[in-house]
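I'd like us to work through together how a protein chain folds, taking it slowly. To get us started, please write out a protein record for me. Go ahead whenever you are ready, and we will take it from there:
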Amino acid sequence: MQAKIVVLAGDGIGPEVTNEAKKILDVVGEKFGHAFAYDHQLMGGCAIDAQGTSLPDATVEACLRADAVLLGAVGGPKWDIPTAKDRPERGLLALRKALNLFANLRPVKLQKELIHASTIKESVLEGTDLLVIRELTGGAYFGPRQEAGDDGYEAYDTMLYTRPEIERVVRLAAEAARGRRGKLASVDKANVLASSRLWRRVTVEVMKEYPDVELEHVLVDAMAMHLIRRPATFDVVVSENLFGDILTDEASMLAGSMGMLPSASLGDKLNHHDLPLGLYEPIHGSAPDIAGQG
């Protein structure tokens, strides 16, 4: 197989991380007969410095033509200005939107040799092997919003979801569960939020297509507790955007560190090999305090 991979090294330790990842890809390619061509593009703080925008048009165009996108990390104190017109993280949100990446997959599987890295008791962690799937294009991050005015009195964000947005991510999660242990936990806040009641209703309808998958509804606050108390009982977990953003960081601590876990964001667009175009990255931040130390 020949594949074109766009590399977005980004900020902080991003360039070091992506350089090591490329070495591994080259070894894989050599062993299994693949050839990878790398196209380096700018995104994040480095793009703001070089071109005045966190996501240049050329980067989007290159990613749309690629077979896969490899991201290092974006952000850092240098660009952490709340009033700035553009910030590194906005580039990532915009890229997900441009590529129509609607689902973020984060597997959490503990290796016995690394179980000591977690602060949670070994007896609780044993057997943990779960996959968290987070919806990426809807919710409060993309709904109508109002920034606070000069008086700083009022601001709001809107958690907006549509039926198609929910259907596609739940269907993807159900397919994943079908290929694993056959259990799906859908996370919402249906006892309070209208968008969560729609989420639950649509989930129930979609899951009628998957009678072989066991469905469980879990309120997000309860899920935050259960992830720490009984993580090994979960197989696939699916959630809307904001809840998923929080829960995936919590789940990463089961492994002891965000630096140990991978992430894949997938969408509807197919690459040249008729596989989903994906954005692949480690889930840690840019860690500027250790950048350049190897």
